[in-house]
Predict the structure.
Amino acid sequence: MANFFKESIAELEHVVWPTHIETKTFFKIVVSIIVGMTIFTYLLTLLFSNTLFGLRSWIHTPGTADLSGSPVIEQPINVTTESGDQLEVTAQPVAQ
């Protein structure tokens, strides 16, 4: 095991280490690429998202919508009151 560490240290002496200026240059290049890819990914996502929402609104455009919050029921409904009386109720259009 000691021999392995001796050989590893001897091998590290043959390594050509980058200078301080080269390290700064490579750091700037890596950060620039990361920033560029981040902006590219954001723009691609924005384009894709807007395209899908545009297609959705183009394909599915409702004519009119009932925004009253309750479903429109055209047939009469039979309702039993607390006193046991039977009533027939029909939906009335909501005034807008």
Q: What stands out?
A: The longest strand covers residues 77-80. The mean pLDDT is 85. The chain is about 55% helix and 10% strand. Helices lie at 2-12, 20-59.
